[in-house]
Write a structure and sequence with these properties.
Length: 127
Amino acid sequence: MSQWAPDTKTKTSTLHPFPIHTPPTPSMSAKRQETGLIEIKRAPGGKVEGSYIVRLGDIVNMRAFMQRFEKACPPGPDARIKHKFPVIQTFSGEFGDETLLWLRSAPEVDEISENALMRLSYGGGQL
């Protein structure tokens, strides 16, 4: 999705600090088409409270998105980025309700999942 919106007074473009809502596409879920918000995928079993994993679209410029995100949702108790994985267009963090609403409305976001607790077991033991 494009993060640039045309400036109607001149022939230049300006970067918007807030999500630009785009018309629904066939790939969007029915819920996103209806509300404009992406659904949060729930963790099966245990979850890390308040922690989420956010995956951006394949063609999104992650650096530009993160700059816009940090401007709209400054780091603090409601918005803490923990890890960035640019190769897979993903980041994780602890986000409050207002930050989640911003992320859910951003068209560049393809998926938001609760961060789950995982246990690995091998040959009868657990890691």
